[in-house]
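Worked example 3. Consider a protein that binds fe (ii) ion.
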Amino acid sequence: MELATRRGATQVILSEHRRLTSIVSGMLRVVDGMASSSGSYCTMLMRAMLYYIHEFPEQVHHPKEEQYLFARLRERTDEIDAVIDELRHQHEEGKLRIRALDRALTRYELAGVVMLPALHDSVYGYADFYANHRHLEESVILPGAQRYLTVADWAEIDEAFGANRDPFESLETEDSLDDLYRLIVQTMPDAQT
Ligand SMILES: [Fe+2]
Ligand SMILES: [Fe+2]
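Given these inputs, the predicted complex is written out as structure tokens:
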């Protein structure tokens, strides 16, 4: 029972990481494709991917990591405080990078190919940044959680991540950019009014 609970929360986090990685790799393919084919479809794809990142990782995944996983780890040990501080800082940096990427995309839409190198650098920079962030969480935080958290901690974390609204759940199996775009659009949560 204890093992199943731990595995449940951890698997949700790993699955959400895989999903964002597949979106980021889609963004790399789109920005690479912009060099040979301009047009509104590429920018539409990129906007859909930015929308995904804003809706799910930024508003659900990262806040829950901080509120539950990082908070309980701080209570149980001080051995990984420096990594937790760095990851919290990266969550803030990630938001800024996505905003900068959005602005670079707008400049590309308005001014054309002259703005493509900046957009390219912004997308590739985010991909490196996120790969490092994911690696730090999976190599330090998740093993640390297995080591230090109590059964009660896991029950709380499992419930928190198990309750994630997950409107994009089927994304991780998609390889085609067309399918990815269609899935994002079809699975968008209802607009908040
Ligand atoms: Fe994460
Ligand atoms: Fe994170």
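Take a moment to read the result before moving on. Residues 13, 17, 61, 65, 137 surround fe (ii) ion (ligand 1) (CB under 6 Å). The chain is about 80% helix and 0% strand.
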